[in-house]
Amino acid sequence: MFDLSPTLLDLLSIKGGTHALCDIFPQLHARFATQLLDKRLFYLSQLVDHDGIYIQSWDELRLNYKFHHRIPLWYKTLLPQVCEHVASRQLLTRYHCPETFLPNLPLPLVNPHTKWRGLWSTYWHSSSSRTLYGRIIFNSSSKTQDLYAIFTHWIPDPSDDSLITPQSRSLRLIRCSGCSLNQSSSLKISNAWRTRAKGASCYLKIDFYNVLALETCTKKRFLTETVQSVDFKISTHYLESQLRLFAQRLHINPVFDNDELPPSSPSPQTPEPLVYHLQQNNNVLEDYQFYTDGSLTNLCSPDVKMDFGWVQVVEDLILTSHSASIPCFHPSASRAEISAIAHVISNLPDNSTIELYTDSLSSINTL
Length: 367
Ligand SMILES: [Zn+2]
Fold this sequence. Notes:
single chain, alpha+beta, Nucleotidyltransferase, domain 5
C-alpha cells in the first residue's frame, strides 16, 4: 500500500459520472478491469439509456462500445445489483442517472428481421431530404421477401413554442393528419394495422435502409388513440444529425489529397458556421458554451498543417461544430489554439458571456 497525498489522489481521480463500477462490484471489477478500462468505462452512468433510468441492453452496449463478445460476467452480475427486475432493465431509483451525465448515445439500429408492431422510429425520406418521425406498425420480416415497413407518420408539435432554439428542444410528436406523403389510398390498410396505428391516419411504405429507432426497442410506451402528443427526451437536432449521417453512410466519397491545392489554403466552400442562441424564459440569452482545439501537424516538413475546431454545446448536447485550416505562415500550436477561440468570439454578438473549454494553457494565460 502507498500513502498518496490528497493532492495527488485528487489529480488521479476520474470525474464525470455517477456510481463507480468498481464500487458496485469490487471483486469482479479487478478481474474485468482491463476490459472496462479499454472502453474507458468507469461509471454506471456510462451504461444507461437516453433517459437515465434504464441500463442499456448488452446488444446496445455492444453496438455503442464495440464489444465483440457475448454477455460477460460483469454485465450479468451488474444487472441484478442495480435493476429492480433484470428483465425490465429499469434501474433502482438510487441508481437513476442525472441528466448531466447521460451518455451521448447513437440511436439504435432497427433489425429488419424482427417483427415490429409499433416501434417509434425516425426515417430519412431521401427524395424530399426530410426527417420523418413515426411508428412502424408492420414489417415484412421474412428473409424471402423484400424488406419493407408500414410507417405511420407523426410530426413535431408546431404548438410547442418554447423560447429555446427549436432544434435544441426535446422532440414532441403529434399525429400527421395526412400530408403529400400519405399512401393510404394505394396501400391495403388491414384492420390490424388500423388498430396498431392508434389513431394515426398518414401511412407510408418505407425501406429499412434509412431507419433508426427512436428509443430502446424493448421499451413500450403506453399509447392510445386519445393520447394527443408523445415526448422524447432527445433533441430534434441530435436526432436529425444522427439520422442524416446514418443515411449518408452509403454515399460517403473517399477523400483524396488534392496536390494542386497548397496545404495552407483554406477550403473555399467552408459554409458559414452557425452559432445557436439559446433564450431563457425571461428572454435573456443563455451563456454560450464552447470547446475549442487547435492542432499543428507535420512541423518541419513541407506538409506542415495548422487546423482548428470548435464545438458549441448546451448541457452535454452538441449543438453545432466548425473546423477549418489556417494558413501556415508562422506555424505554431498556440496560434492554432488561439485561432479557434478567436473564431468563436468573432461569431458571437457583442457583450456575450461564454464559457470556453480548452486544453491549451498558453491560450488561457494569453486571454
Ligand atoms: Zn403525413
